[in-house]
Amino acid sequence: MTPYAATLALAAGAVFAAPAYAAEAQTVSTERGEVRVTELASGLAHPWSLTFLPDGDMLITERPGALRQVSATGEVGAPLQGLPAVHAQGQGGLLEVALSPGFAQDRLVYLGYAEAGDGRSGTAVGRGRLNEAGTAIEDFEVIFRQEPKLSSGQHYGVRLAFDRDGHLFVALGDNNQRPTAQELDKLSGKLVRINADGSIPDDNPFTGKEGARAEIWSYGHRNQQGMALHPATGVIWTHEHGPRGGDEINLPEAGKNYGWPLATHGINYSGLPIPEAKGEEAPGTEPPHYVWKKSPAISGMAFYQDGKLADWNGNLFVGALATKELIRLELDGDKIVHEERLLQSLGERIRDVRFGPDGNLYLLTDADDGRLLRVEPN
Ligand SMILES: [Ca+2]
After folding, report:
1. What angle do CA 35, 40, 43 make, to 5 degrees?
2. Model confidence band, residue 26 (pLDDT cutoffs 50, 70, 90)
3. Domains in the chain, ordered, with CATH?
4. Is 239 a catalytic residue?
5. Which residues have a beta carbon within 5 Å of ligand 1, which is an ion?
6. What are the tens digits of pLDDT across the range 136-181?
7. CA 226 / ligand 1 centre spacing (Å)
8. Which residue is catalytic, options 46, 87, 155, 221?
9. Given Cys at both, which of 12, 255, 349, 362 links 366, Cβ 3.0 to 4.6 Å?
10. What is the predicted pLDDT for the residue at 250?
11. What distances in angstroms separate CA 368 from CA 90, 230, 348, one per listed residue?
12. Beta strands of 172-323 (E only): which ranges?
């Protein structure tokens, strides 16, 4: 507790039994009223993803390779046992965590991570059972591998989301091997759709097509680090990092080409054009649903539905790493009609944003001393 917060707590102590976390709460003005941002936990090593267990506790990944259970009040548990070896270099490591839709019965936890192999690395997805004590993932098995492995430490994606039919979508990156996002015999730069056990659905768009991987749902993606199921429509929404400029939101449809690197609103970090790019549009490719000309460097994505701040209901939230803020998007149907940037005063790279079962937003900040934050109406 800071000396200032301690003074406040002393002053308030006689009347209010202030919770311990009150020391770290901060009030922030937004277009829709004041919100309170409360630090629930700190000291997390580059936390990447969080998911909620049925009792309100959370599972949080740390990029170097740990998965921890964190209570609703912010008590951080020891790293769980039974995790796979991860390739924790560059952007790689333990990245995404998601629960089985039948978690209450099967206790299956899904992990997305970077895995070494073939002198390179690529994204893998596996699942295992959370033991009753909450101390280990048991019988972990790999159910999906991005093949071939092409990464030297960049662009693994990865986000996981189940649709209402129980299909598992895996949002991947291009391993920073641009042309491969257009090559259907490779899984880099794709959105993949598999069954919960890793088998491939019979009705995938490239099933039975010569020279194409049957796991592919859509292609031409750069580096996808956000995905969420729209709570009203059941449609999968994704987003991806552009190069310098051109971060996108897409609603990927079966078999379609989302353009990278043939079509992009961005340029190389060197300032030169993307060599393969025809421009912002290219024949046979889908335009982005929404695009940022200047890259916030987006990561994490959550719909706000039946939340504590009624004026945010139906909004979409996206984290921003480079511009260090939270992005709030207002929708009219599927159309994004208004954008607000908020929480800049925190000065935090926001890696993940999730909507909690208590009707509040939860954020992870990307740092050696990463934080878990709760955002609620003040
Ligand atoms: Ca695109």
Report:
1. 130
2. very high
3. 7-356 (2.120.10.30)
4. no
5. 258-259
6. 999 999 999 999 999 999 999 999 999 999 999 999 999 999 999 9
7. 14
8. 155
9. 349
10. 98
11. 14, 32, 12
12. 190-194, 216-219, 223-229, 236-241, 247-250, 290-292, 298-303, 316-320
